[in-house]
Structure formats: C-alpha cells, structure tokens
Design brief:
By secondary structure, the protein is an alpha+beta fold. Helix content is about 30%, strand content about 30%. The chain has one domain. The chain contains 9 helices and 16 strands.
Length: about 280
C-alpha cells in the first residue's frame, strides 16, 4: 500500500506497511532526522545470548578425506564470524492483525518505550516497510551483501537444539570453499538463524531486517549506514518527551514533510495528540 507522507499519516500507522523503531531522543533528532543517518549494527551487539555467543553446531556426511577435519574448523570459524561480526540488523515493532482487523498497535508497547524509547522520553520513528527495504538495497553493494527480512517467530528455548540450522552438510565440503559453505548454509537457514527468539520476547512483535556479508573479501565494519529519511513517514513522541524540543521537532518535520504525534497516557489508556 503506497501512502503519501503527511496526508495519510494516521492511515499509515494503522497499515501493514508500518514499522515502528523505538530510539533515544538524541539519536532520532541529531542523527536520523537531521543527518539522514540510520545505522544497522552487528548481531554481536544484541543483548540476547543466543545471538552474541558462538552457536553450537554439528557436521554430518560421508567419505571424508584426511583434510576434512581442518576444513570443518575453517567452516565453523566463518559460520560464527558471519553470524556475529558480518551480519548487521535493525529491529522494529509492527502492527498485529486478526482476520484482517488491527488489534495491536506497534507504537503502543510500554516495555519497548521503557527499554528502547528512553523511558518514554524518546521517539518512535514510523517507517514504510517497503520503502526501507528498497533503501537498503540502494545503500549497499549487492555483490558483497545479501538482505534478509521477516517477522520474528517465538519459540521455547529448548526447541532451538532440534533445528537443522546448526548442522552443516559435510558433503558440500568437497565442492565449495569454506566461506561459501558457511554463507550458503546461513542463507538456506536464515529463518532459523536470524528470525527466531525466545517466547519471552513475543510481546515485542518484532520485524527484523538483516544485511549479511556474502563476499569473503568485504571489509568488516562496526555498522552499515542507510539513507532512510525518505522511508520515514512520521514520528511519535513519548509520553514524557520534553516540550523544550518542540521547535526542533516542528522544524525537522517541516523540512522532511512528515507529521508528528505525541503519545499520551491518561485514565489507563494511550492516545495520540496532535502536538506537544
């Protein structure tokens, strides 16, 4: 669904194209909106041990040569490096629907406001999902990186150990280089490796975008920068957002031709106000 920026902001935040990114006030105002810089960071920087620690894995196959053991170690090294150091991501919340009826807004997540939205002093950036994916493709060298994106599925921790994503096909060792073996395995099992989290996170309703290195000769970086202001359809200010920043917010919104709303909590309900 293609929506214009300002006229249809309320329609946008109710749509299935909307993605909601909670962040600090300084990040939103000084980096994303002012400088058109939105960063994807390495999976190594998450606070989920399933993602920042090495993954357990096995190798299965037949008719291996004497060199197979050394090759396995190299593949394992690339596998962990690709997942933790050479995969860059950003997370969003999304709207939830039941029988095509909206029942949960992605911007009304009290725990997300507390953890990522600076204790309700911060900002929720509203992105167009399709425009953001397009912007990533425009920002990266597609000969060196591969893009994955999907909603997170939530599973009980013990179910991870049964996943085939942590078992590499040893028969492929005879025909491919170690880096390529590791990357192709990650590409094949990207759903299990990038888009599964413990059920304790399920209320986040997370949608994730991952950029994974696909070329062995690419240079490692701490982050990947995306020019994303054209993907932002509006902003939502937290319940505690300081009024002193009203001129800055209005100036940036006018410059970018987007709208802003103020989230307000009163009488056990959240509502959107038209201004600070």
């Amino acid at each position: 669904m293609e929506l214009s920026n300002k006229a249809s902001f309320m329609e946008m935040i109710d749509s299935d194209d909307a993605l909601f990114h909670y962040t600090k006030r300084s990040t939103a105002l000084e980096m994303v909106l002012s400088k058109n810089i939105f960063k994807l960071f390495r999976l190594l920087n998450t606070n989920d041990p399933r993602e920042y620690k090495d993954r357990l894995r096995s190798v299965s196959g037949w008719n291996w040569t004497d060199e197979t053991e050394a090759l396995i170690k190299r593949v394992h090294k690339y596998f962990d490096a690709l997942l933790r150091n050479y995969s860059y991501f950003s997370s969003f919340s999304e709207n939830k629907y039941n029988d095509n009826k909206l029942y949960s807004h992605g911007y009304i997540k009290p725990r997300m406001w507390a953890q990522h939205g600076e204790d309700h002093y911060g900002v929720c950036l509203v992105f167009s999902k399709q425009n953001f994916i397009d912007a990533i493709h425009d920002s990266i060298d597609q000969n060196n990186f591969c893009v994955f994106h999907d909603a997170i599925s939530y599973k009980i921790s013990g179910q991870y150990s049964r996943s085939q994503s942590l078992s590499i096909d040893g028969d492929s060792f005879n025909s491919s280089k170690p880096f390529q073996i590791a990357f192709e395995h990650i590409k094949k099992h990207n759903k299990e490796l990038f888009f599964q989290k413990d059920t304790d996170y399920r209320d986040e309703d997370e949608y994730r975008v991952v950029v994974c290195q696909s070329n062995e000769n690419s240079v490692e970086s701490q982050s990947i920068e995306i020019q994303a202001t054209n993907c932002i359809k509006g902003i939502i200010l937290g319940d505690r957002f300081p009024k002193v920043y009203k001129p800055t917010v209005e100036q940036l919104c006018e410059k970018l031709e987007i709208e802003y709303k103020k989230l307000h909590f009163e009488k056990r309900n959240y509502m959107l106000l038209n201004g600070l």
